[in-house]
Amino acid sequence: MDEKGFLIGITGRSKRIFSKQMWERKEITLLACVGADGKALPPGLIYQAAQGNVQSTWVEAIEAGKHQVFVTSSPSGWTNNEIGLAWLEQVFDRYTKKQARLSYRLLILDGHGSHVTQDFLQYLMFKPLSSAYSSELTHHLHASQGLIPIKKGDFFPLFWRAWLTSFKEESIFKSFKATGIWLLEREVILKRFHSETYKERDSSSGLSEADWRKMRALVQSAVKEGADKQANKITYGLREALTTKSRHKNKGKALDLQQREEYHGGAVFWSPRKLREACVRQEVREQEDRELRLQKAEVKELKAAATLYKQKIAEEKRVQRERVKNTARAIQLSQKGKRKALRPPAQKPCKKQAIERGGSTVGGGEAASEPLLKTTRRGRSVNLPSKYK
Predict the structure, then answer these.
(1) In whole angstroms, what is the distance from residue 219 CA to residue 206 CA?
(2) Which residue, 77, 248, 305, 336, has most beta carbons within 10 Å?
(3) Are 238 and 35 in contact (CB under 8 A)?
(4) CA-based nearest residue to 161, from 128, 121, 123, 125
Protein backbone atom coordinates (compact mmCIF):
# COMPACT_ATOMS: atom_id res chain seq x y z
CA MET A 1 0.00 0.00 0.00
CA ASP A 2 1.25 3.50 -0.81
CA GLU A 3 0.00 7.00 -1.52
CA LYS A 4 0.34 9.52 -4.32
CA GLY A 5 -0.61 13.19 -4.56
CA PHE A 6 -2.26 14.92 -7.51
CA LEU A 7 -2.20 18.59 -8.49
CA ILE A 8 -5.34 19.50 -10.41
CA GLY A 9 -4.63 20.40 -14.04
CA ILE A 10 -0.87 19.62 -14.00
CA THR A 11 0.41 16.71 -16.04
CA GLY A 12 3.36 14.63 -14.95
CA ARG A 13 5.27 15.24 -18.16
CA SER A 14 5.14 19.02 -18.09
CA LYS A 15 7.86 21.15 -16.50
CA ARG A 16 6.65 24.10 -14.50
CA ILE A 17 8.02 26.54 -11.98
CA PHE A 18 6.05 27.02 -8.77
CA SER A 19 6.68 27.39 -5.06
CA LYS A 20 7.54 24.59 -2.69
CA GLN A 21 4.42 25.40 -0.68
CA MET A 22 2.27 24.76 -3.76
CA TRP A 23 3.99 21.42 -4.36
CA GLU A 24 3.43 20.40 -0.76
CA ARG A 25 -0.22 21.43 -1.01
CA LYS A 26 -1.59 18.43 -2.87
CA GLU A 27 -5.21 18.97 -3.71
CA ILE A 28 -6.06 15.26 -3.95
CA THR A 29 -4.21 12.23 -2.56
CA LEU A 30 -4.68 8.64 -3.64
CA LEU A 31 -4.37 5.63 -1.31
CA ALA A 32 -3.84 2.52 -3.41
CA CYS A 33 -3.24 -1.10 -2.50
CA VAL A 34 -2.61 -4.15 -4.69
CA GLY A 35 -2.55 -7.83 -3.75
CA ALA A 36 -0.41 -10.74 -4.83
CA ASP A 37 -3.53 -12.29 -6.37
CA GLY A 38 -3.41 -9.63 -9.06
CA LYS A 39 -6.33 -7.60 -7.72
CA ALA A 40 -6.39 -3.99 -6.54
CA LEU A 41 -8.45 -2.72 -3.64
CA PRO A 42 -10.86 0.14 -4.34
CA PRO A 43 -8.88 3.39 -4.40
CA GLY A 44 -9.22 5.88 -1.56
CA LEU A 45 -9.32 9.55 -2.60
CA ILE A 46 -8.52 12.31 -0.10
CA TYR A 47 -9.80 15.72 -1.21
CA GLN A 48 -8.46 18.94 0.25
CA ALA A 49 -11.16 20.74 2.25
CA ALA A 50 -10.53 23.31 4.95
CA GLN A 51 -13.68 22.38 6.87
CA GLY A 52 -13.39 18.65 6.26
CA ASN A 53 -16.49 18.57 4.04
CA VAL A 54 -17.07 16.81 0.73
CA GLN A 55 -18.63 19.07 -1.92
CA SER A 56 -21.36 17.74 -4.18
CA THR A 57 -19.66 18.94 -7.39
CA TRP A 58 -16.53 16.92 -6.57
CA VAL A 59 -18.31 13.57 -6.58
CA GLU A 60 -21.19 14.10 -9.02
CA ALA A 61 -19.43 11.84 -11.56
CA ILE A 62 -19.24 8.93 -9.08
CA GLU A 63 -22.02 6.40 -9.66
CA ALA A 64 -23.07 3.73 -7.20
CA GLY A 65 -22.78 0.25 -8.68
CA LYS A 66 -20.41 1.43 -11.41
CA HIS A 67 -17.45 2.83 -9.49
CA GLN A 68 -15.71 1.17 -6.57
CA VAL A 69 -14.00 4.05 -4.79
CA PHE A 70 -13.92 5.61 -1.33
CA VAL A 71 -13.79 9.33 -0.66
CA THR A 72 -12.80 11.43 2.34
CA SER A 73 -11.20 14.83 2.97
CA SER A 74 -8.56 16.53 5.09
CA PRO A 75 -7.48 20.17 5.52
CA SER A 76 -4.14 19.54 3.78
CA GLY A 77 -5.27 17.05 1.15
CA TRP A 78 -2.73 14.55 2.54
CA THR A 79 -3.30 11.46 4.62
CA ASN A 80 -2.85 11.54 8.39
CA ASN A 81 -3.01 9.15 11.33
CA GLU A 82 -6.80 9.18 11.48
CA ILE A 83 -7.23 8.67 7.74
CA GLY A 84 -4.62 5.90 7.73
CA LEU A 85 -6.47 4.06 10.49
CA ALA A 86 -9.78 4.65 8.73
CA TRP A 87 -8.39 3.20 5.49
CA LEU A 88 -6.99 0.17 7.35
CA GLU A 89 -10.31 -0.57 9.02
CA GLN A 90 -12.87 0.51 6.44
CA VAL A 91 -11.14 -0.43 3.18
CA PHE A 92 -8.27 -2.90 3.66
CA ASP A 93 -9.82 -5.07 6.38
CA ARG A 94 -13.21 -4.99 4.72
CA TYR A 95 -12.02 -6.13 1.29
CA THR A 96 -9.40 -8.69 2.39
CA LYS A 97 -11.09 -10.39 5.37
CA LYS A 98 -13.52 -12.43 3.30
CA GLN A 99 -10.86 -13.60 0.88
CA ALA A 100 -8.28 -14.45 3.55
CA ARG A 101 -10.91 -16.11 5.76
CA LEU A 102 -9.08 -17.09 8.96
CA SER A 103 -5.59 -16.80 7.50
CA TYR A 104 -3.12 -14.02 8.20
CA ARG A 105 -2.77 -11.09 5.88
CA LEU A 106 0.48 -9.28 5.18
CA LEU A 107 0.29 -5.56 4.51
CA ILE A 108 3.46 -3.95 3.19
CA LEU A 109 3.77 -0.24 3.95
CA ASP A 110 6.37 2.50 3.70
CA GLY A 111 9.14 2.30 6.31
CA HIS A 112 8.93 -1.47 6.85
CA GLY A 113 11.96 -3.70 6.36
CA SER A 114 10.41 -5.32 3.31
CA HIS A 115 10.39 -1.97 1.54
CA VAL A 116 13.14 -1.65 -1.07
CA THR A 117 13.41 2.03 -1.99
CA GLN A 118 10.89 4.82 -2.13
CA ASP A 119 11.58 5.63 -5.79
CA PHE A 120 11.44 1.99 -6.80
CA LEU A 121 8.10 1.30 -5.13
CA GLN A 122 6.69 4.55 -6.43
CA TYR A 123 7.72 3.60 -9.94
CA LEU A 124 6.22 0.12 -9.73
CA MET A 125 2.91 1.19 -8.28
CA PHE A 126 2.29 4.73 -9.47
CA LYS A 127 4.37 5.27 -12.60
CA PRO A 128 1.78 3.63 -14.90
CA LEU A 129 -0.98 5.52 -13.14
CA SER A 130 0.90 8.83 -13.45
CA SER A 131 1.46 8.25 -17.15
CA ALA A 132 -2.15 7.21 -17.74
CA TYR A 133 -3.51 10.18 -15.78
CA SER A 134 -1.18 12.58 -17.59
CA SER A 135 -2.37 11.14 -20.90
CA GLU A 136 -6.04 11.56 -19.94
CA LEU A 137 -5.43 15.09 -18.66
CA THR A 138 -3.48 16.05 -21.79
CA HIS A 139 -6.27 14.71 -23.99
CA HIS A 140 -8.81 16.67 -21.95
CA LEU A 141 -6.77 19.88 -22.22
CA HIS A 142 -6.33 19.44 -25.96
CA ALA A 143 -10.03 18.67 -26.43
CA SER A 144 -11.06 21.81 -24.55
CA GLN A 145 -8.41 23.88 -26.37
CA GLY A 146 -7.11 25.00 -22.95
CA LEU A 147 -10.09 27.34 -22.55
CA ILE A 148 -11.59 25.78 -19.43
CA PRO A 149 -9.73 25.51 -16.09
CA ILE A 150 -9.53 22.11 -14.39
CA LYS A 151 -11.48 21.85 -11.15
CA LYS A 152 -11.90 19.16 -8.55
CA GLY A 153 -15.13 18.02 -10.15
CA ASP A 154 -13.20 17.18 -13.35
CA PHE A 155 -10.65 15.02 -11.54
CA PHE A 156 -12.56 11.81 -10.96
CA PRO A 157 -13.57 11.01 -14.58
CA LEU A 158 -9.95 11.48 -15.68
CA PHE A 159 -8.60 9.53 -12.70
CA TRP A 160 -11.01 6.62 -13.10
CA ARG A 161 -10.09 6.03 -16.74
CA ALA A 162 -6.40 6.16 -15.78
CA TRP A 163 -7.03 3.79 -12.86
CA LEU A 164 -8.72 1.20 -15.07
CA THR A 165 -5.89 1.51 -17.60
CA SER A 166 -2.98 1.14 -15.18
CA PHE A 167 -4.16 -1.10 -12.32
CA LYS A 168 -4.60 -4.29 -14.30
CA GLU A 169 -4.07 -7.82 -13.10
CA GLU A 170 -1.06 -8.30 -15.39
CA SER A 171 0.66 -5.16 -14.11
CA ILE A 172 0.02 -6.09 -10.48
CA PHE A 173 1.53 -9.56 -10.99
CA LYS A 174 4.60 -7.98 -12.59
CA SER A 175 5.05 -5.55 -9.71
CA PHE A 176 5.08 -8.33 -7.09
CA LYS A 177 7.40 -10.45 -9.23
CA ALA A 178 9.78 -7.53 -9.85
CA THR A 179 10.16 -6.92 -6.09
CA GLY A 180 10.67 -10.57 -5.26
CA ILE A 181 7.83 -10.46 -2.72
CA TRP A 182 5.68 -13.06 -4.41
CA LEU A 183 6.74 -15.48 -5.53
CA LEU A 184 9.61 -15.15 -3.04
CA GLU A 185 12.89 -14.72 -4.95
CA ARG A 186 15.75 -12.85 -3.35
CA GLU A 187 17.90 -12.91 -6.48
CA VAL A 188 15.59 -10.36 -8.07
CA ILE A 189 16.60 -7.83 -5.41
CA LEU A 190 20.26 -8.82 -5.22
CA LYS A 191 20.72 -8.24 -8.94
CA ARG A 192 19.81 -4.59 -8.45
CA PHE A 193 22.90 -4.03 -6.33
CA HIS A 194 25.26 -5.34 -9.02
CA SER A 195 26.99 -2.87 -11.34
CA GLU A 196 25.56 -2.70 -14.80
CA THR A 197 27.51 -2.07 -17.97
CA TYR A 198 26.06 -0.14 -20.82
CA LYS A 199 26.99 -0.47 -24.46
CA GLU A 200 27.29 2.49 -26.69
CA ARG A 201 24.57 2.64 -29.22
CA ASP A 202 25.33 3.31 -32.84
CA SER A 203 24.01 6.76 -33.61
CA SER A 204 24.22 6.31 -37.36
CA SER A 205 21.01 5.93 -39.26
CA GLY A 206 20.23 2.81 -41.30
CA LEU A 207 18.00 4.67 -43.72
CA SER A 208 19.14 5.77 -47.14
CA GLU A 209 18.49 9.14 -48.78
CA ALA A 210 15.73 7.63 -50.92
CA ASP A 211 14.04 6.26 -47.86
CA TRP A 212 14.09 9.71 -46.25
CA ARG A 213 12.46 11.22 -49.35
CA LYS A 214 9.68 8.61 -49.23
CA MET A 215 9.10 9.27 -45.55
CA ARG A 216 8.91 13.02 -46.16
CA ALA A 217 6.34 12.53 -48.93
CA LEU A 218 4.24 10.28 -46.68
CA VAL A 219 4.36 12.83 -43.86
CA GLN A 220 3.30 15.67 -46.16
CA SER A 221 0.38 13.67 -47.58
CA ALA A 222 -0.68 12.64 -44.07
CA VAL A 223 -0.64 16.26 -42.96
CA LYS A 224 -2.88 17.28 -45.87
CA GLU A 225 -5.28 14.40 -45.28
CA GLY A 226 -5.36 15.09 -41.56
CA ALA A 227 -6.35 18.75 -41.90
CA ASP A 228 -10.07 17.93 -41.91
CA LYS A 229 -9.66 15.55 -39.01
CA GLN A 230 -7.85 18.24 -37.05
CA ALA A 231 -10.63 20.73 -37.77
CA ASN A 232 -13.24 18.21 -36.61
CA LYS A 233 -11.17 17.57 -33.50
CA ILE A 234 -11.07 21.28 -32.71
CA THR A 235 -14.84 21.59 -33.20
CA TYR A 236 -15.46 18.60 -30.94
CA GLY A 237 -13.07 20.05 -28.35
CA LEU A 238 -14.86 23.38 -28.31
CA ARG A 239 -18.17 21.59 -27.81
CA GLU A 240 -16.67 19.65 -24.89
CA ALA A 241 -15.30 22.90 -23.45
CA LEU A 242 -18.75 24.52 -23.51
CA THR A 243 -20.23 21.45 -21.78
CA THR A 244 -17.56 21.57 -19.10
CA LYS A 245 -18.03 25.33 -18.64
CA SER A 246 -21.78 24.91 -18.11
CA ARG A 247 -21.05 22.23 -15.50
CA HIS A 248 -18.60 24.52 -13.71
CA LYS A 249 -21.39 27.06 -13.13
CA ASN A 250 -22.99 24.72 -10.61
CA LYS A 251 -21.87 25.67 -7.12
CA GLY A 252 -20.96 22.81 -4.85
CA LYS A 253 -22.53 22.35 -1.45
CA ALA A 254 -21.33 20.35 1.53
CA LEU A 255 -22.98 16.92 1.50
CA ASP A 256 -24.93 15.73 4.52
CA LEU A 257 -22.92 12.55 5.07
CA GLN A 258 -24.51 10.64 7.95
CA GLN A 259 -22.32 8.12 9.73
CA ARG A 260 -24.29 5.09 10.88
CA GLU A 261 -21.43 2.93 12.15
CA GLU A 262 -18.80 3.86 14.70
CA TYR A 263 -15.15 3.25 13.85
CA HIS A 264 -11.97 3.48 15.87
CA GLY A 265 -10.55 6.36 13.88
CA GLY A 266 -11.95 9.85 13.61
CA ALA A 267 -11.98 9.88 9.80
CA VAL A 268 -14.51 8.11 7.56
CA PHE A 269 -14.20 6.90 3.96
CA TRP A 270 -17.43 7.29 2.03
CA SER A 271 -18.50 4.79 -0.61
CA PRO A 272 -20.38 5.71 -3.82
CA ARG A 273 -23.63 4.47 -2.26
CA LYS A 274 -23.18 6.74 0.78
CA LEU A 275 -22.31 9.65 -1.48
CA ARG A 276 -25.36 8.98 -3.64
CA GLU A 277 -27.60 8.80 -0.56
CA ALA A 278 -26.19 12.15 0.60
CA CYS A 279 -26.78 13.64 -2.87
CA VAL A 280 -30.37 12.35 -2.83
CA ARG A 281 -30.91 13.88 0.61
CA GLN A 282 -29.50 17.13 -0.66
CA GLU A 283 -31.73 17.05 -3.75
CA VAL A 284 -34.79 16.35 -1.58
CA ARG A 285 -33.85 19.17 0.78
CA GLU A 286 -33.26 21.55 -2.12
CA GLN A 287 -36.58 20.52 -3.67
CA GLU A 288 -38.33 21.21 -0.37
CA ASP A 289 -36.56 24.57 -0.16
CA ARG A 290 -37.63 25.39 -3.72
CA GLU A 291 -41.22 24.42 -2.96
CA LEU A 292 -41.14 26.48 0.24
CA ARG A 293 -39.72 29.49 -1.62
CA LEU A 294 -42.34 28.99 -4.35
CA GLN A 295 -45.08 28.80 -1.73
CA LYS A 296 -43.82 31.97 -0.06
CA ALA A 297 -43.62 33.68 -3.44
CA GLU A 298 -47.20 32.64 -4.22
CA VAL A 299 -48.41 33.90 -0.83
CA LYS A 300 -46.55 37.16 -1.39
CA GLU A 301 -48.05 37.46 -4.85
CA LEU A 302 -51.54 36.80 -3.49
CA LYS A 303 -51.04 39.42 -0.78
CA ALA A 304 -49.82 41.91 -3.37
CA ALA A 305 -52.84 41.11 -5.56
CA ALA A 306 -55.19 41.51 -2.57
CA THR A 307 -53.59 44.84 -1.69
CA LEU A 308 -53.90 46.00 -5.28
CA TYR A 309 -57.55 44.89 -5.35
CA LYS A 310 -58.27 46.82 -2.14
CA GLN A 311 -56.61 49.89 -3.57
CA LYS A 312 -58.64 49.54 -6.75
CA ILE A 313 -61.91 49.18 -4.79
CA ALA A 314 -61.00 52.19 -2.63
CA GLU A 315 -60.20 54.22 -5.74
CA GLU A 316 -63.50 53.24 -7.34
CA LYS A 317 -65.37 54.25 -4.18
CA ARG A 318 -63.57 57.57 -4.10
CA VAL A 319 -64.40 58.21 -7.74
CA GLN A 320 -68.04 57.27 -7.06
CA ARG A 321 -68.21 59.66 -4.10
CA GLU A 322 -66.74 62.43 -6.20
CA ARG A 323 -69.23 61.68 -8.95
CA VAL A 324 -72.19 61.75 -6.52
CA LYS A 325 -70.90 64.95 -4.92
CA ASN A 326 -70.48 66.64 -8.29
CA THR A 327 -73.97 65.50 -9.33
CA ALA A 328 -75.51 66.91 -6.12
CA ARG A 329 -73.69 70.19 -6.60
CA ALA A 330 -74.89 70.40 -10.18
CA ILE A 331 -78.50 69.71 -9.09
CA GLN A 332 -78.23 72.36 -6.35
CA LEU A 333 -76.85 74.92 -8.75
CA SER A 334 -79.59 74.15 -11.26
CA GLN A 335 -82.31 74.50 -8.60
CA LYS A 336 -80.81 77.82 -7.49
CA GLY A 337 -80.88 79.04 -11.05
CA LYS A 338 -84.57 78.04 -11.33
CA ARG A 339 -85.47 79.92 -8.14
CA LYS A 340 -83.75 83.02 -9.38
CA ALA A 341 -85.60 82.76 -12.66
CA LEU A 342 -89.01 82.40 -10.98
CA ARG A 343 -88.53 85.22 -8.44
CA PRO A 344 -89.40 88.73 -9.77
CA PRO A 345 -86.51 91.06 -9.87
CA ALA A 346 -86.18 93.35 -6.85
CA GLN A 347 -87.04 97.04 -7.62
CA LYS A 348 -84.89 99.71 -6.13
CA PRO A 349 -86.90 102.63 -4.62
CA CYS A 350 -86.49 105.81 -6.46
CA LYS A 351 -85.35 108.97 -4.80
CA LYS A 352 -88.82 110.40 -4.51
CA GLN A 353 -90.18 107.35 -2.75
CA ALA A 354 -87.20 107.31 -0.39
CA ILE A 355 -87.93 110.94 0.50
CA GLU A 356 -91.58 110.22 0.99
CA ARG A 357 -90.81 107.24 3.24
CA GLY A 358 -88.39 109.30 5.18
CA GLY A 359 -90.87 112.09 5.45
CA SER A 360 -93.71 109.88 6.53
CA THR A 361 -91.46 108.27 9.10
CA VAL A 362 -90.52 111.55 10.51
CA GLY A 363 -94.03 112.95 10.25
CA GLY A 364 -95.58 109.89 11.90
CA GLY A 365 -98.13 109.22 9.14
CA GLU A 366 -99.69 105.95 8.15
CA ALA A 367 -96.62 104.95 6.15
CA ALA A 368 -94.58 104.83 9.34
CA SER A 369 -96.44 101.78 10.58
CA GLU A 370 -95.19 99.72 7.64
CA PRO A 371 -91.69 98.27 8.17
CA LEU A 372 -88.95 98.74 5.63
CA LEU A 373 -88.07 95.65 3.61
CA LYS A 374 -84.54 94.47 2.89
CA THR A 375 -83.54 91.74 0.48
CA THR A 376 -80.75 89.24 1.18
CA ARG A 377 -78.23 88.03 -1.41
CA ARG A 378 -80.44 85.08 -2.23
CA GLY A 379 -83.47 87.28 -2.70
CA ARG A 380 -85.20 86.61 0.63
CA SER A 381 -87.09 89.40 2.41
CA VAL A 382 -86.25 89.98 6.07
CA ASN A 383 -87.78 92.23 8.71
CA LEU A 384 -85.43 94.81 10.11
CA PRO A 385 -85.08 95.09 13.87
CA SER A 386 -87.06 97.84 15.53
CA LYS A 387 -83.99 99.94 16.24
CA TYR A 388 -83.31 100.14 12.51
CA LYS A 389 -86.87 100.95 11.52
Answers:
(1) 19
(2) 77
(3) no
(4) 128
- Are 124 and 108 spatial neighbours (Cβ–Cβ below 8 Å)? no
Contact 9, 150 (CB under 8 A): yes
Domain boundaries, the chain: 2-185+234-270, 292-342
The helix-helix angle for 155-166 and 118-143 (nearest 10°) equals: 130
Q: H helices within the chain, ranges in order?
A: 20-24, 81-87, 93-100, 118-143, 155-166, 169-179, 187-190, 209-248, 272-342, 351-363
The pLDDT tens digits of the residues spanning 198-257 come to 444 444 445 555 665 666 676 666 666 556 666 666 666 667 777 777 777 777 788 888
Beta-bridge partners for 44: 31, 70
The number of beta carbons lying within 10 Å of the beta carbon of residue 354 is 11
Direct distance between the N- and C-terminal alpha carbons of the chain, in angstroms, rounded to an integer: 134
CA nearest to 28, candidates 138, 152, 121:
152
CB 4 within 8 A of CB 35: no
3-state SS of 293-346 is: HHHHHHHHHHHHHHHHHHHHHHHHHHHHHHHHHHHHHHHHHHHHHHHHHHCCCC
Closest CA to 245 of 145, 135, 139: 145
How many residues appear in the chain?
389
Q: List the beta bridge partners of residue 4.
A: 30
Q: Report the alpha-carbon distance of residue 289 to residue 284 in Å, rounded.
A: 9
Q: What is the pTM of this model?
A: 0.61
